[in-house]
Amino acid sequence: MMIKCPFIPEGFCVNIFGTYWVRDPSWIDAKVINHERIHTAQQRELLFIPFYILYGLEWLLRLMQTRHWRKAYLAISFEREAYAHGGDFTYLSRRRPWAWVRMWKKAGRRK
Ligand SMILES: [Zn+2]
After folding, report:
1. What is the per-residue pLDDT for 109?
2. Is residue 5 in a domain?
3. Could you list the residue range(s) of the whole structural domain that residue 82 is in?
4. pTM of the predicted model, to two decimals?
């Protein structure tokens, strides 16, 4: 479900409990929806609230590592998984649970 919200920054889609919050939905395409569906799968396996806590904590950690808010955002394990597979529309049907954990390991090795 898509919800128009003027408080969301332009060009962002925020997934809140499986609903997609955007300022202007005109740029939302199938790939973005798939990206958000991957986040919903991540949220479900973490029972939602812990997802947001881990997401925020990892963003802070990545911010300290990169000192750049967007690089930090792209380095978050949840985002790595969603960006790596957002264009693969069969990914969710064969996705392994906790797939984002492997992205954490991958991110660590890159340093
Ligand atoms: Zn994302």
Report:
1. 61
2. no
3. 30-110
4. 0.92
